[in-house]
Amino acid sequence: MPIKEDVELGRDVRIPHPELVNLYGCTVGDESRIGTFVEIQAGAKIGARCKISSHSFICEGVTIEDEVFVGHGVMFTNDKHPRATTADGRPQQTSDWTLQRTHVGRGASIGSNATILCGVTVGAGAFVGAGSVVTKDVPMGATVAGVPARIMSAVENMATAASAFISEAS
C-alpha cells in the first residue's frame, strides 16, 4: 500500500492516483494536492492548501508551510555529506549521519526540477526558478534562479511575502 497507515492526511487532501505515490510517516495539511510519483518521507510536514506536483521528492526533515507550490520533479536533500558506507566500509546506518532540516515558508513557489539542498530556509512568498539549485537561504519575497541560485529580484514578491508574514503573526 503506497500510503502507509502512519500518514496523517488533513481534511479534503486530494491524491488522484494514491497507488502511484509513496507516503509514509508524514503529515499533509487540509486541502493539499499530491501528484503522481511523489514520495514524502517520515517526519516531513506539508501545510494546508499546498500543491506538490508529480515526480517530487520530499525527504525527512523538510517542513513546507501553507499554500506552497512545489513544481514537477523538485528534489529536497537532508544530508550535507551523503555516503553509502562509513570510513571503515560498513553500510551507513541512521546513527552515522546528521539530519539537516529545511524549511519552506508560506506562499513560496518552487519551480520544476529545482533542487533544494538541506539546511536552508526558503522565505515566505519567495520564488525559486525552474532548474535552480538552492544552496543557501532565500529571503522572504525574493526571486532566485540559477545554479547555484542567486537573487534576481527582492521586491516584486513582497506583497505576497508580507501577506504571509502578517497571517503568521496573527
Gist?
Helix content is 7%, strand content 25%.
Number of domains: 1
What is the SS-derived class? mainly beta
**What is the straight-line distance between the termini?**
40 Å
Largest sheet: 7 strands, mixed
The CATH topology is given as UDP N-Acetylglucosamine Acyltransferase, domain 1
What would the average pLDDT be, to the nearest integer?
Answer: 92
Task: State the name of the first-level CATH class.
Answer: Mainly Beta
Taking strands numbered 1, 2, ... along the chain, how are they ordered across the largest sheet?
Answer: 4-7-10-13-16-18-19
CATH architecture: 3 Solenoid
By DSSP, the count of extended strands is 19
Description:
The mean pLDDT is 92. 7% of the residues lie in helices and 25% in strands. It is mainly β and 170 residues long. The strands form four sheets. Strands 4-7-10-13-16-18-19 form a seven-stranded mixed beta sheet, with no helix packed on it. The protein has one domain (1-80, 98-169): UDP N-Acetylglucosamine Acyltransferase, domain 1, CATH 2.160.10.10. The chain has one helix at residues 158-169; strands at residues 8-9, 22-23, 27-28, 33-34, 39-40, 45-46, 51-52, 57-58, 62-64, 69-70, 75-76, 102-104, 109-110, 115-116, 121-122, 127-128, 133-134, 143-145, 150-153.
